[in-house]
Fold this sequence. Notes:
The chain is mainly α and 94 residues long. The protein has two helices and no strands.
Amino acid sequence: MTTNLAQRNFSASMRLMQNVGFKCASLPELGELKTLSELTARARLVRSALNARALFESLNKNLAGLSEALAEFEKRKRLIGAESATRRKNDDET
């Protein structure tokens, strides 16, 4: 995943979480809902909140995996660089 795409996904999930948070703050209690359409609207909002949370968790999990992979790449890059320098030094001495 490119950095730009990851940033857009993260920003979108943050906007979604904020939007859902604002709506959930003013959510009426279940006992206050009288019609099927009110119950349906509440169910949609709750599902949106759960979906947003799952998306956010998925992005965080992907970020952790990418961070680990990048750290491993940097470690191997340094190791390869050190091995190359050692080989060049040994070649120069002979």
